[in-house]
From TrEMBL, chain A:
<feature type="domain" description="LUD">
    <location>
        <begin position="85"/>
        <end position="306"/>
    </location>
</feature>
<dbReference type="InterPro" id="IPR004452">
    <property type="entry name" value="LutB/LldF"/>
</dbReference>
<keyword id="KW-0004">4Fe-4S</keyword>
<dbReference type="InterPro" id="IPR037171">
    <property type="entry name" value="NagB/RpiA_transferase-like"/>
</dbReference>
<keyword id="KW-0677">Repeat</keyword>
<dbReference type="InterPro" id="IPR009051">
    <property type="entry name" value="Helical_ferredxn"/>
</dbReference>
<keyword id="KW-0813">Transport</keyword>
<dbReference type="Pfam" id="PF02589">
    <property type="entry name" value="LUD_dom"/>
</dbReference>
<dbReference type="InterPro" id="IPR017896">
    <property type="entry name" value="4Fe4S_Fe-S-bd"/>
</dbReference>
From TrEMBL, chain B:
<protein>
    <submittedName>
        <fullName>L-lactate dehydrogenase complex protein LldG</fullName>
    </submittedName>
</protein>
<dbReference type="InterPro" id="IPR024185">
    <property type="entry name" value="FTHF_cligase-like_sf"/>
</dbReference>
<dbReference type="Pfam" id="PF02589">
    <property type="entry name" value="LUD_dom"/>
</dbReference>
<dbReference type="InterPro" id="IPR037171">
    <property type="entry name" value="NagB/RpiA_transferase-like"/>
</dbReference>
<feature type="domain" description="LUD">
    <location>
        <begin position="111"/>
        <end position="206"/>
    </location>
</feature>
<dbReference type="InterPro" id="IPR003741">
    <property type="entry name" value="LUD_dom"/>
</dbReference>
Length: 500, 207
């Protein structure tokens, strides 16, 4: 609220939520990488099949999805009271709660907390929230070394690279590349290391074990935060999460404010939905839950940083806020025909795939037509597979359509709106439409041999900002109808009809 | 204005601009399921084996014999146990038994060849064992740092599904859910068992 009590739309978030170029441009580069396409294709198809197996064996899967969706709606409905309840519960159990309005504030809070421990190293559990705020980059600037401990995140970090998938961030790398990265970047690595995944994992175990035992501070995200009890939960597979959440003296957890669940009981829904949707397992190997500080067990200092960074801006959109239900399972990525071909880098943001295409523009905004985020709502064929796969039933196609609408609204006086207006005028009269279609045939000149128009000239440029346009056909349907070929086809059809 | 007040104010602004739609949470998924002992056992064994855990069955009377056999077969000479574990469980074991205490540095736990603990509750349908830091399970580091975890599961603590298992927990205790040994599929999606936690999980079912 402002001082006068009038509600204003909350500010957008910052950090790693926007790429440098528009989706079609970024996608074109990614599509030219056959290794990436092969790896992503294999990963998405494998996980997809596993997910269908384990969701199919639960007769109440749909009821669980309904419950999950309703719990998440309830969370957003009661967000202020639940956040305060969480704060009270965590504080009562010896934790300290911090509130971060944006990425910069969250980074500053975490940096300050690490400094106070006297350490210039931290170990990290894979976390989307800290990737979103660019924590590692910030810590590096501040002279603090952050070690990613998830194997894939370690591969990405050592390769000075970016994650390409929410669940398996290094899926764009093959074993030979990973071996090379380890040999080049991992201290004290065995020079005879081969590219057997088992041996590569063992090299990571050896490298990280020393860090787990000696680094006194860990930074994690959270999959769930329980308002009622102050309990935080992290689900994982490798045990690096358990190490980070158990061994250091100080634990700092960064959690988006939408990750709340009202009660401990709600986990009975989400601990069924998440692993089956995410890795296609009945349960992930390890889940850790902790509530504040437990004397004699685990970190004796616990800080929880609650992150807004554009989430309240998304909440102000009646339709778009459904994207805040997301539990980051990545099922929508694995079923998306667009993601399957482009991979995650093309989306530019920490959040790729269908959910990223609705989440990134909402968290970080798409306020001018040339914003890369304004191209994301068009990075979809609207096939609806993501909606079917989503464990909390986020209607991603409808959200994409709404964001497309908003993008056009934002660009109301821009080129796309002018193009739409021209189309509307042309379509309102049959004479004008025929003339326009004939003129469009000239578009083949623009398309050239590739049969695709990537940059329309002048006022029409708005249309191709976010998409390619196929070249118009040689002749319109009306022209074909009136041609010898059209007449002959019609006569043949008539003849066949009479024979029956 | 503090960021706390700012964020709470932003949420209220957002909710004024886009008012919430009240919702009832439908809980018509399966709850309160039960199965006879034999079926629960069969389901759990199936899931544990699927996760590549090693499964043994024992009577409470023979437990010390079964445990000694497992430890010996694994070449264990020093085994760690939590303070509250029934010492008679290790009566047959010939090696050194180290009782954990909180002033032992976690790094020292790496010197143990393995650890034996009890468990709080187990979910048969997902093959998940829950530890809650009770005296017979110990602090979390104890079941994390050594490379072998031998975990005893009593059939009376085995529930059918996730809701039934969670209902038996005290949320405020430190809880670790274990479904097989640690694993990664991060390299070309090829599954590798045993990354950071104990690389071997032996489960002994009793009762």
């Amino acid at each position: 609220m402002t001082a006068l009590g009038m509600p204003v739309v909350p500010p957008r978030g910052s950090g790693n939520l926007r790429g440098l170029e528009k989706f079609p441009d970024a996608a074109r580069q990614e599509l030219a990488n056959p290794q990436l396409r092969r790896n992503i294709g294999k990963a998405t198809h494998t996980i997809r099949a596993k997910r269908l197996n384990v969701t199919g064996e639960l007769p109440d899967w749909e009821q669980l999805r309904d419950a999950g969706a309703a719990v998440k709606t309830d969370v957003l409905n009661r967000l202020p009271e639940l956040l305060v309840q969480l704060e009270e519960a965590v504080t009562a159990r010896g934790g300290v709660v911090h509130w971060a309005a944006d990425a910069a504030e969250a980074n500053a809070i975490v940096t300050d907390l690490i400094r106070k421990t006297g350490s210039d190293e931290v170990i990290k559990v894979k976390s989307m929230a800290t990737q979103e705020i660019g924590l590692n980059e910030h810590l590096e600037e501040q002279g603090i070394a952050a070690y990613e401990t998830d194997l894939a995140e370690l591969i990405v970090q050592l390769g000075h690279d970016k994650p390409s998938h929410i669940l398996v961030p290094a899926i764009h790398r093959n074993r030979a590349e990973i071996r090379e990265i380890f040999l080049r970047e991992m201290p004290d690595v065995d020079p005879d290391l081969d590219d057997n995944p088992r041996h590569l994992a063992a090299a990571a175990r050896k490298f990280l074990r020393h860090k787990f035992m000696t680094v006194p501070v860990a930074v994690s995200g959270a999959n769930f935060g329980i308002a009622e009890t102050g309990t935080l939960a992290v689900v994982e597979s490798e045990g690096n999460g358990r190490m980070c959440l158990t061994l250091p003296q100080t634990l700092i957890t960064v959690m988006g404010i939408e990750k709340l669940l009202p009660t401990f009981r709600d986990l009975e829904v989400f601990l069924q939905l998440l692993p089956r949707s995410s890795t296609g397992e009945r349960m992930n190997p390890y889940t850790s839950m902790w509530t504040g500080v437990t004397p004699g067990d685990g970190p004796q200092e616990f800080h929880l940083v609650l992150l807004d960074n554009g989430r309240t801006a998304a909440l102000a959109d009646e339709i778009g806020r459904e994207a805040l239900h997301c539990i980051r399972c990545s099922a929508c990525l694995n079923v998306c025909p667009v993601y399957e071909r482009t991979g995650g880098h093309a989306y530019g943001s920490t959040y790729p795939g269908p959910i990223g295409a609705v989440l990134s523009p909402q968290l970080a905004g798409m306020d001018e037509p040339h914003d890369p985020n304004a191209s994301l709502p068009f990075a979809s064929s609207l096939c609806g597979a993501c909606y079917d796969a989503c464990p909390v039933k986020i209607d991603i196609p409808s959200l994409l359509v709404e964001l497309r609408h908003q993008k056009v609204e934002h660009a109301r006086f821009g080129p796309e709106a002018a193009a739409m207006k021209a189309a509307s005028l042309a379509m309102s009269s049959s004479r004008r439409w025929t003339a326009a279609q004939k003129a469009a045939g000239l578009g083949r000149v623009l398309a050239g041999k590739k049969g695709r128009i990537t940059n329309l000239p002048g006022p029409l440029a708005g249309w191709t900002d976010a998409r390619d346009m196929p070249a118009p056909p040689k002749q319109t349907f009306r022209q074909w109808w009136a041609s010898d070929e059209g007449r002959a086809a019609l006569a043949k059809a008539r003849e066949e009809g009479q024979q029956r | 204005m503090s960021s706390r007040d700012a964020i709470l104010g932003r949420i209220r602004s957002a909710q004024t601009l886009a008012p919430p739609t009240p919702v009832e949470v439908p809980r018509d998924y399966r709850l309160g399921r039960t199965l006879p002992d034999a079926e629960r056992r069969e389901l759990l064994v199936d899931r544990l084996v699927d996760y590549k855990a090693h499964v043994h069955e024992s009577t409470p009377e023979d437990l010390h014999v079964v445990l000694a056999k497992i430890l010996t077969a694994r070449g264990v000479r020093r085994v760690g146990i939590p303070e509250g574990l029934d010492r008679s469980w290790l009566a047959e074991f010939g090696g050194e038994v180290v009782v954990d205490s909180i002033d032992r540095p976690a790094a020292d736990l790496g010197d143990l060849d393995g650890v034996v603990t009890a468990s709080a509750v187990t979910c048969a349908e997902t093959g998940t064992i829950f530890l809650d830091g009770s005296p017979d399970q110990g602090r979390r580091a104890l079941t994390l740092v050594p490379d072998l975890h031998v975990c005893v599961v009593a059939m009376s603590d085995v529930e059918v599904g996730v809701p039934e298992a969670l209902a038996r927990l005290v949320p405020e205790r430190p809880i670790t859910m274990i479904s097989g040994p640690s694993a990664t599929s991060d390299i070309e999606l090829e599954r590798v068992e045993g990354v950071h936690g104990p690389r071997t999980l032996e489960v002994v079912m009793i009762g």
